[in-house]
Design goal:
Order of helices and strands: HHEHEH
Number of strands: 2
Number of helices: 4
Strand content: 5-15%
Strand order of the largest sheet: 1-2
Helix content: 25-40%
Number of domains: 1
Distance between the termini: 39 Å
Oligomer: single chain
Structural class: mainly alpha
Length: 93
């Protein structure tokens, strides 16, 4: 069963900010809908909480972390804190 996405007030703000700047950070408590909301605006996703792919991403980050940023923009980087070097890369972009 697929659930229909209900547009939130934050969606308009996200669209406005993405038109002005290349990246935004969404902060909030666990399970409040941050990822679900941002997925509506993302053209690619780097999911660092997926146990099937995390080890591959972690290994890649040790020798060529910039490859983790490859993908259509805007790119959702979910749970970036699991590989903190990503934040340093984003500061350089």
């Amino acid at each position: 069963m697929s659930k229909k996405y209900l547009k939130r007030y934050l969606d308009n703000i996200i669209e406005e900010r993405l038109d002005m700047i290349g990246a935004i950070v969404i902060v909030g408590p666990k399970w409040c809908g941050k990822t679900t909301t941002v997925k509506q605006h993302a053209n690619s996703i780097l999911d660092l909480q997926n146990p099937d792919t995390f080890n591959s991403y972690k290994e890649l980050s040790s020798f060529k972390p910039s490859l983790l940023l490859d993908g259509d923009k805007p790119r959702l980087i979910d749970e970036w804190q699991n590989i903190p070097v990503i934040w340093m890369l984003l500061e350089q972009v």
